[in-house]
Amino acid sequence: MQYCGGIPNIDLIDYKPENEASPVPAASVTYPKPALAALIFFLLVALACRENPTGPQQYDWPRSDPADQGLSTQWLDRAYEQALTIEGLLSLLVVRNGFLVVEHYFGYLDKDDAIHIKSVTKSVVSILTGIAIKEGFLESVDQKLGEVLPPHYLVDLDSTKSEITLKQLLTMTPGFLWDENGDLQAEWVDSDDMFSFALDLPLDHQPGEIFEYNSSVPHLLSGILSYATGKIMLNIAEEYLFGPLGVVPQYWYKAPEGINLGGYGLALTPRGMARIGELYLNKGTNDDRPIVSSGWVAASTKNQVPGANYGYLWWIDTFRGHEAFMARGAQGQMIYVFPDLEMVVVTTGNLPQATFPQSLDQLVRSYILPAAD
Length: 373
Description:
alpha+beta; Beta-lactamase; 6-stranded antiparallel β-sheet; 3-stranded antiparallel β-sheet; 11 strands; about 35% helix
């Protein structure tokens, strides 16, 4: 298989939260051995993807001087100097009031280069789920697997699994046994049918009780959306999301069963990532056209899991008193959205695991946000 354009950058080691307050334990932070990481790398390379999909021209961001948007250029200069010290950082963008006010690239990346956004893909899956509900392909997050799966998957589905809701998938609380970045994930990636593998996982907890970060769960959403719409995720996104926003995906890897990966595998430019953040900053509208409902945006970016700081495949946090929600992918793929500041911050990179996400959170908290205060 050929790489679908650009630098592949498909390390699957992913961010997981540190332990949060009981009763919502998060998986401990563990990382695969080099041999396992190499195995996952070659397995994902082997997955089929759609190369150079056609679509609209990339959105041409309006530019503005930061000072004209109420940002301190002195603090932003400090932010740039700090960014230079972050090993592996590839891009830093800041959008304020709809204008691109900061755009820096480091290393090999440039404004037209896409990068594998890793688990930011999950947040895109969340948006597409909201779009599917808005467009009538699905009814609500309260629908159960027994209602939304293709009939042949229901034959051997046990009664407890059939009661798992879309909301529990979106909040990482379906209860499946999982080992993120461990042997079980490697088996899943190596399987001939990643959707069936994820669905056949045994239950380790009662659905809805425990938050467990699990990259196979959004893949179930990918299959459910594909069945509901009759299209793979990339085609859904191009019609209802990327097309209207002027976002041109470079690739979205497919699983062996033919659907796009739900947990990772999408490649966008940093500017495209900023468009995703801007859409949610604007409560789901683009040029006064609703792409996804404002109610969905509010629910997605509200803490849905006590103690986990997690919405519908979006992370929730507070920086210097400013509430924020984030799409977060391993090694530096980040979309920070600050509604009260009308600001979006995007980063991409190949950061070492030891410094992610702390170094980026510090950059935002200690250098970029002071520019807006």
